[in-house]
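Follow-up to my post from last week.
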Amino acid sequence: MAKKVLIVDDEPNIVVSLEFLLRQSGYEVHVAADGEDALRQVQAVAPDLVLLDVMMPEKNGYDVCRRIRARPEWSKIRIVFLSAKGREAEMTKGLSLGADAYVTKPFSNAELVARIGELLQERGAPGGA
Amino acid sequence: MNTRGRLLAWIAGLYGIALAVPTGLGVLLAAGLPEADLAALMRILEQRTPVLVFGALLLLLAIAIAVKSIFGGHVDAARELAEQTRLIRSTNAGLQLTARGGELAGVAAAIEELAGAYRELQRDSESRAAEARSRLEEERNRLAALMSELTQGIMVCNAEGTLLLYNEQARTLFAAADANARRPLVGLGRSLFGLIDRAQIEHAAHRLERSLERGERQPSARLVTVTAAGRLLKVQVAPYLGAGARLAGLVLALEDVTELLGRETQRRSLLQLLAARIRAPVANIRAAAENLAAYPEIEPQRRTQFIDIVSAESNALSVTINDALREYADALKAALRLEDVRVTDLLEFARLRIAGALDVATELEEVDDELWVRADSYALVQAMVHLAARLRDEHGVRKLGLRARPAGRYAEIDLVWSGKIVAGDALTHWELQPMEAGAEQTPLAVRDVLEQHGGEAWYWSEGVGGLRSGGFRFLIPGAERAAAAARVSGFAQSRPEYYDFDLFARGALPAALNEARLAMLSYTVFDTETTGLEPSAGDEIISIGAVRVVNGRLLRNEVFEQLVNPRRALNPESARVHRIDAATLGNQPAIGEVLPAFHHFCEDTVLVAHNAAFDMRFLELKQASSGVRFSQPVLDTLLLSAVAHPSLNDHTLEAIAARLGVSVMGRHTALGDALLTAEILLKLLPLLAERGILSLGQALEASRKCYYARLQY
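User reply:
Got it. Predicted complex:
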């Protein structure tokens, strides 16, 4: 069974590319356009990894991250921040809130896929793939 | 009892005695006379009654004439002599005595001899004083020249924010581009807070106090302010030390940085801004482009979609770059406010502010004393107060701890509390609200402050069950320990052109202005020239001149002088007095423009004019049309002169000037008369003090009484 990745971003132009890229890489891809939607989908889909944009209206990426980390049953979900803000302070904040990686935009598709692969590999095979 | 009453009493008394003597004698003679003789005597007296009455009346007349002449020649003359003698001692040693003839002539001559000797003595000590003064003056001029050579503006204020010193550069920095515009004024005795935001100054003063307590040498603080004319000033604030090395005032060095913004700084901030905004669109383009390259077998529909993304995002990017170029100037201003601050200080201020504004107890825990951050400490403290207020109001948090420790290139500052669990999203919400702390409000949000610092903040919690604690963590870029800032060069030794350090001693004015001491008040002494004498009949002001008197000193370079277009024909007679022609006035602003500027010049001072009722009447009639009201207390030198010399009758400007030894120059221009009136005011104040009139309230009361006395007269 393919691993599940949830893309959370309010910018359709990046979502289109990420969705295509991750499908091509063999993942089951889900998409959420904002923070609330993201939490609903985490509940419904139980993804293995969440690609989380920081800057979103209403509930931002940091809030979503904190909500996920607050639930013990979701502690195994990998969280990767995707952010247009590249300052050290924001990266520190993201990692402090419990993210596994912080990727700054723009990024290389190949490197992102490799990073995601690494993170899901470390986990072993929770879904039994 | 007045002179007239005493005169009558004397006459009545002497006349009584004069009648009593013969009457008494008669009674003594008659006592014991035989019956027949007494009857004969009574008959004789009855027959001679007209003669007796005539004699009595004659006696009355003689006594009245004698008493009157003695009074005129001696008593009145003696009183006048006494007053003039006092004047010789206090004000004008060269005064000619008017007492001539009579027994007093000798006394007057003796006094004049004494006055001569006194004058001699005075001249002697004056010449010595003048010598010392000229040496001082020379020194002062040399140092004033030095001061004006400085390119920086310099201002010194006392603990109340009253200006004690400034140089011409400082005045120029705050001058408006448009000369008629209302602007804060630089002047001795004026408030610094009219020029620079009070909260900013107080914040700087607090920081300096802290540094002094710690025994730091040459502490200083920096702030950036925008003038009314829109100039951006960088201000360096150093303490002015009083007794016991306490902060007695502030020395401010000002620099106009509006145009001095270095190109390097501009490029750097432009880059930062661009970097932040181009990352996302470039990411979109790159992801799409890499997909196109990596998967050549992609279906046509997908391919078109990716190509469209690349094209749309590149367009958006060029718009972003244009916008960024436009906005970079604003970002620069924000960046300028950052300075190197010791975290201990920062948290100490935060503590004070939180305690003061919110009544929330705070405690400093685990603070690294050598930790420094690059921050706008004022804004950052505001952010902390805002969060503390939200915690208190929404979660009842009444006790906060403050911690700080280094974290790589950053400083980690924690605002912690225990017991209450706050939803993590709360901060996200609170940091977007406009900050509010007590009465203070700003359109800025905590998020703006963090952005400006290049910092971040988030909520964390630890512990389990009932023993949880949590906090807000601020991550603020660190800084090297600030190097001691350069002192304002030459300042300690030099004497600038505009200063009055005696103002240091002056505390805040008493709450009731009435109790303020006359000698310590700030006055605006003014005069108006008008088209005629009847404002109600359409006469108008054509010129206003005014000068400031502060702390007993006439400030000749703080004047107001403005001709006014009266918008009516000039009366040839008054034109002869003031020698202003219609053509000159035609180009001048109208009274509606001039009065607001004059009103602003007079702010927080007592108004003084000679025969003030006349000038005030003109101002009051313009109240409605100009929209300004002169509600401050008004003193009249005419009335004050009458109070100081009640027995003298001539209180024209010329007569007072002659009496008090003030030389008259430049009369009949508004400014010339204002200067003369101001000098007279300064001479009158000590005379009033001798009569026990020390406070403004007493002077106003005495003037009022005197005014009515003169009306009745």
